[in-house]
């Protein structure tokens, strides 16, 4: 089950955030932008990991922004199919109407590191993604739009 900061309170917070970690500590620990909401997913080894998540709509399409920050167990190159399968099922998204974009940081920490955008593609069988691949977002207008969406304060999770 996906966990986000709005669902967890009281005693559950201690359990889900591993040894009494606060939102600020989780953000520092995972190192993704504050405009992304931390959600807990399970990686391909079935270990819980935190990723940054933001869901927005543009017309009839959904846009999901994702970032692993510096979490080693949350690398999208190894876990994309596992992560988006969980997201599609939990948020009841139509994969045919949803774009998945990864914000990837190169270097140490998101304050000084360069970042890149990657659009993920998959062949879908129901809510299960197959043959997943990423391609860099190279268009200046597309990168500008993604930066604008990232800068917005509101998030769905």
Describe this structure in words.
By secondary structure, this protein is α+β, with helices and mostly antiparallel strands. Helices cover 27% and strands 36% of the residues. It has a seven-stranded mixed beta sheet with strand order 1-2-3-4-5-6-7, with helices on both faces. Strand 2 and strand 3 form a beta hairpin. The longest helix has 16 residues, at 76-91. It is globular and about 30 Å long. Residues 5-28 have low confidence and may be disordered.
Topology diagram in text:
Blueprint: E1 3-4, H1 11-16, H2 23-30, E2 37-42, E3 48-58, E4 61-67, H3 76-91, E5 98-106, E6 114-125, E7 128-136, H4 140-151
In short:
This protein has 157 residues and is of the alpha+beta class. It contains four helices and seven strands, in the order βααβββαβββα. It has helices at 11-16, 23-30, 76-91, 140-151; strands at residues 3-4, 37-42, 48-58, 61-67, 98-106, 114-125, 128-136.
Low-confidence stretches: 5-28
User: Biggest β-sheet: count, sense, barrel?
Assistant: 7 strands, mixed
Q: How are strands sequenced across the largest beta sheet?
A: 1-2-3-4-5-6-7
Estimated structural class: alpha+beta
Count, helices? 4
Radius of gyration: 15 Å
**Mean pLDDT across all residues, rounded?**
80
DSSP, total strands: 7
| Gap between N and C termini | 14 Å
**Shape estimate:** globular
Percentage of residues in DSSP E strands: 35-45%
Helix content: 25-40%
Quaternary state of the chains: single chain
Helix and strand sequence: EHHEEEHEEEH
């Amino acid at each position: 089950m996906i966990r986000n900061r709005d669902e967890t309170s009281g005693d559950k917070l201690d359990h889900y955030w591993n040894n009494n970690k606060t939102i600020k500590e989780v953000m520092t620990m995972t190192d993704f932008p504050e405009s992304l909401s931390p959600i807990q997913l399970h990686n391909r080894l079935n270990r819980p990991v935190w990723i940054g998540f933001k869901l927005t709509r543009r017309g009839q399409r959904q846009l999901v922004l994702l970032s692993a920050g510096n979490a080693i167990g949350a690398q999208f190159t190894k876990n994309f199919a596992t992560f988006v399968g969980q997201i599609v099922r939990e948020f009841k998204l139509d994969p045919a109407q949803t774009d998945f974009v990864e914000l990837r940081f190169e270097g140490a920490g998101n304050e000084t590191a360069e970042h890149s955008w990657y659009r993920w593609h998959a062949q879908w069988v129901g809510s299960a993604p197959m043959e997943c691949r990423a391609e860099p977002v190279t268009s200046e207008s597309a990168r500008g739009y993604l930066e604008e969406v990232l800068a917005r304060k509101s998030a769905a999770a």
